Amino acid sequence: MASNKKALLLRIPPDLWDQLNRWARDDLRSVNGQIEFILREALRRRLGGKSGAAVAPRPTEDESGEDAA
């Protein structure tokens, strides 16, 4: 099954990487998963705490019957 997630090159300073890595390990996540979690939380807060559905992953073509791109 192919992933429909977008790849992103992110350049961050080593000290920030170390902090993210420690936080991710504490939460039993990968750094990638931790960054995704942080971004979703930031979007949820920016939207005023509205339903998590607003920042949930978009359905794939199979799930919605439409092109998700």
Structural commentary:
This protein has a domain at 14-49. The chain is an all-alpha fold. Helix content is 48%, strand content 0%. The two termini are 17 Å apart.
State the low-pLDDT regions, or none: none
What does the largest sheet look like? Answer: none
* Rg for CA atoms: 15 Å
Q: Give the helices and strands as they follow along the chain.
A: HHH
Helix coverage percent: 40-55%
Shape: globular
Beta-strand portion reads: under 5%
From the N-terminal CA to the C-terminal CA, the straight-line distance is: 17 Å
What's the total count of β strands?
0
Tell me the number of helical segments per DSSP (H or I, 4 or more residues long): 3
Structural class: mainly alpha
Average pLDDT reading = 81
How are the elements arranged and paired?
Layout: H1 14-26, H2 31-46, H3 61-64
Any key phrases for this structure?
single chain; 69 residues; mainly alpha
Short note summarizing the structure:
This protein is mostly helical and about 70 residues long. The chain is about 50% helix and about 0% strand. It is globular and about 35 Å long.
